[in-house]
Amino acid sequence: MKKLSKSALTVLSYVNICFLISMTLITVIDVIARYVFNTSFLDAMTISSYLLAVINALALPGITLARGHVQVDLIYDRLPARVRRFLDAGNSLLAGILFSLLAWFAFGRATHSFRRGVYKGWMKLPEYPAKYLFAVGCLLTAVTFFVLFANAVAGRGDSTQTTGQLD
User: What is the pTM of this model?
Assistant: First the structure.
C-alpha cells in the first residue's frame, strides 16, 4: 500500500510541478509583455487562478499523507499513545467526511459549470476543467484521510510521525 501511495503521490507531484511551471511562465510572459510591448497576456489572471486552485487541491493528499500540515503539539505530545491514536482516528474520520462532502459539492459545481457552459475572461475559458480537478484533489484527500483513519483504528498509525516522512 505504501508503494502504491508513494507512486501516486509522485505522479501528483509531477503534475503539480507542470502546473506550477505553466503558471510561472504565464506570469513571466505577462510581465514581459506589459513592459516590452505595452500589452498584457490575455486572461493571465484567470488562467493563473485556475491553476492555483488545481495546484492546491492536488497537493493536499501528499501533504496529508506526509503529515505536513501545521500543528501545535504542546499538549498532544504529552498524551498517552492510546489517546493520541484515538484523537488521530477521530480527526482523520472527521476530515475524511468533510473532504468527501467538499468533493461531492465540487463535482456538482463542476458538472453545473459544464452543462451551463460557464466561461470566464476575454478568451472565454471554460471553468469546468479546473473545477473537476479541484474535486478530484478533494476526493483523493478524503481517501487519504480514510486510509489514515483505518490505520489509526488498526493500530498501524504512527502518531509520532514527523513531517515529510512517508516511510
Answer: 0.76
